[in-house]
Amino acid sequence: MDPKELGLVAAQQLFQLKELHYGFWEKGEKPTVVKFPHAQERYTEFLIEHIDQALGGKRVGRILDVGCGVGHTMCELLKIGYRVDGVVPYPWMAKMAEENVRKIDPDGTKAKVHECRFEEFPVSNVQEKYRLIFFSESYQYVPMQESFELMRELLSTDGKVVIFDFFTREGTLEKSTMRGGHTLVKFYGLATRSGYEVNTDIDVTEHLSPNLTLANDILINRIGPVTDTVDRFLGEKYRITYNLAKFLLRKRLEKVKSKYFSGNRNETDFIKHKTYRLIVLDRTRQ
């Protein structure tokens, strides 16, 4: 299990989450741990609403959820009549997604989970082109050039792409403390050159940025004190061994502390350097 998967597993189990993405907050709403599951539900509802719109309300054909996590969005789409496949690279998530979708689609005719990266998707096994491919907080992990090339192989001639994720803004002098997100201007250019045109482009940054405030509260005010207590306990009980391990791992520990417990990854920084968008692309007939 790699560090990213471990973090997602820990978050899912610690907070008993159905989904593994940001929450969608109403303007002026104060983000709290109690409200977070409801904010996540709004996120999924907003995404499905725009999937419906992109397909003209016609729930026929097949769609693909790239980065399907534990399969919650797949299940919601299955419930309203869609046939939907998922792709996720982590064995633990793939297993959970498979278990969840089988509760709704026992015989596996309406849904299939592929355990692989998107760029490794088994194109040769696809018997039916997808009407729509969507990315829910997963596009930032996919190489852009490869994604456009692969989508053209997987999509029907009138296929759609929905991306719900954050991108990096251009033009800011300071470097963001938060990594991730393709550069938006480069994305637009590559999409056009690859034979796609923007149908819908909604900036929802103000609805997603409060998640950084909530994350800081959890990390600094809740998890931070616990880790400090554990650190003191281990330092007293296993003084020589523990202090030696800390010395050997000091650079990595400092990096983790600076990244997650310094308060630098905050809502203000996110708004300044990132832009969270719901983008719908139409495939052109190039």
Domain count: the total is 2
* SSE class: alpha/beta
User: Span between N and C termini?
Assistant: 41 Å
Inertia-based shape:
globular
Spans of at least 5 consecutive residues with low confidence: 5-15
Topology of helices and strands:
Layout lengths: L2 H13 L20 H19 L7 E5 L5 H8 L3 E6 L2 H12 L10 E3 L14 E7 L7 H11 E14 L15 H10 L2 E8 L1 H4 L1 H28 L1 H10 L1 H11 L6 H7 E10 L3
Parallel strand pairs: 1-2, 1-4, 2-3, 4-5
Antiparallel strand pairs: 5-7, 6-7
Helix pairs in contact: 8-9
Structure description:
The chain is α/β, with parallel strands linked by helices and about 290 residues long. It folds into two domains: about 5-205 and about 275-285, Vaccinia Virus protein VP39 (Rossmann fold, 3-Layer(aba) Sandwich); about 210-260, no CATH class. The protein contains eleven helices and seven strands. A seven-stranded mixed β-sheet has the order 3-2-1-4-5-7-6, sandwiched between helices. β4 (about 130-135), α5 and β5 (about 155-170) form a beta-alpha-beta unit. The radius of gyration is 20 Å and the shape is globular. It starts with a helix and ends with a strand. Mean pLDDT is about 85; it is low at about 5-15.
Summarize the structure.
The protein is α/β, with parallel strands linked by helices.
Essential attributes:
single chain, 286 residues, Rossmann fold, 2 domains, seven-stranded mixed β-sheet, 7 strands
